[in-house]
């Protein structure tokens, strides 16, 4: 049985009467790639801050290997807004952090510069880099000391999809426990062993493999059509959710839904369901 | 540990030297001011000695108020401090590196002023002066850094408040002090205010190593205030 690396136990966090996190409990097992998905403001970054001890929860505890004390030596941390020294060059920042981690800069260069495409920006000032380039530097600083556990806040934001693959592969070159937050649905589906959704500070589903989450939906496809009162009345017996002015109706071949819709409109499209559908469908059911 | 300290000092120096405004106000502007004021008053030896220590006091006040307190506040509010706290080294080493780098810049600036005094006004700084400058620099940077930290952390969510307040504090301290001329000759009231504020006691150390009792107050109170402010801020999320 896999050991629990991080146990998040009944965490709540309130500030000035506002509930930011509500009774969150999660177990992150050794070797898991655990993705926490949610929209902006759902509480993802706050939960990361609580896990890392940057803020104290109003209730609950975080256990690292059954221990309340945190040991950061073997942990790589990526904050969403990585605080880098804007007046230093990228290469200087990497050299400085190599010193802080007591590791050999040339080794870091040999192992990671190509994967993270650092050579091209090595002599650029941090303040002149794009958000994606800064994120790459942040990700390199997270992994350069070869930690066994990674805690990453929005690791895929502003990064090119091809590079995300390369970077993730380098993360998984060894068995690492990774807990990350994101609102990049595709990347989360691709890289996570387990996913759970957070909405308004609450966990809204049991953590499962992305495929299991998608399978838990009422159907494997969805029909998207404009939301109006007449359409809503026609499809009210079917499972659906409303989003962005559209109705997303769950649909499997062999049902009469398609014929029903064709009887009043041809203005629709059919798509496979994905994680985002799961999230929006779960929200509707709260 | 030593390697981390040296690298921190090195990169902090690089950062400072890359900020043109910082180089101007710490190195170029004081020399410019020294030459102008010195020439205006005829370059008399007594006044050059008085002005030199006064300008050093001005550097200590502005460097302490602007280059340490607000910088630490920025590092705190942009998350650098919480990030560095998770690194395998003591965060105090980082702060030490930051402060030492500022002391090096101030020392360089003081050395440039002493060279200017010799080259332009023929004034030679004695070893007694040098000892006073060293002691005054340490005390001045300590006092003004904590005052800068107090202002910065007092208005930690309001950058404009901090910047305005720091500028206001610097100008009040500077223009009520004996930095450029003995204000007591013009106004007893300003002289009284100046003696309560921290620059005059620091100038006394820089000039003749005399210890003013109010120095003790400024050595203790701002650091205590910062201790309480820092602990208060630690409890909530910025």
How many separate helices of chain B?
11
Which stretches of chain A are low in confidence, meaning pLDDT under 50 for 5 or more residues running?
none
For the record, the count of structural domains of chain B works out to 1
* Percent of residues in helices of chain A: 25-40%
CATH homologous superfamily label of the largest domain in chain A? P-loop containing nucleotide triphosphate hydrolases
CATH C-level class of the largest domain in chain A:
Alpha Beta
Count of individual beta strands of chain A: 13
Percent in strands of chain A = 25-35%
Helix-and-strand structural type of chain B: mainly alpha
Which H/E pattern describes the elements of chain A?
A: EEEHEEHHHEHEHEEHEHEEHEH
Class from helix and strand fractions of chain A: alpha/beta
Largest beta-sheet characterization of chain B? none
Compute the gyration radius of chain A: what is it?
22 Å
CATH architecture of the largest domain in chain A: 3-Layer(aba) Sandwich
End-to-end C-alpha gap of chain B:
30 Å
End-to-end separation of chain A in angstroms reads 33 Å
List the strand order in the largest sheet of chain A.
5-6-7-3-8-9
- Give the topology string of chain B: H per helix, E per strand: HHHHHHHHHHH
Helix content of chain B: over 70%
Notes on the structure:
The complex is a heterodimer of chains A (286) and B (238). Chain A is α/β, with parallel strands linked by helices. Chain A folds into 2 domains: 4-211, P-loop containing nucleotide triphosphate hydrolases (Rossmann fold, 3-Layer(aba) Sandwich); 217-285, Alpha-Beta Plaits, CATH 3.30.70. Chain A has helices spanning 44-51, 90-100, 105-112, 131-143, 161-171, 185-191, 210-215, 229-234, 257-262, 275-285; strands at 4-15, 18-29, 33-37, 59-64, 75-78, 149-153, 177-182, 194-199, 202-203, 221-226, 240-243, 246-251, 268-272. Chain A has a 6-stranded mixed β-sheet, with helices on both faces. In chain A, helix 5 (161-171) links the parallel strand 6 and strand 7 (177-182). The longest helix of chain A is centred in the middle third of the chain and has 13 residues, at 131-143. Chain A starts with a strand and ends with a helix. The model of chain A has no long low-confidence stretch (mean pLDDT 90). With 238 residues, chain B is mainly alpha-helical. Chain B has one domain. Chain B has 11 helices and no strands. The longest helix of chain B has 31 residues, at 91-121. Chain B starts with a helix and ends with a helix. The model of chain B has no long low-confidence stretch (mean pLDDT 87).
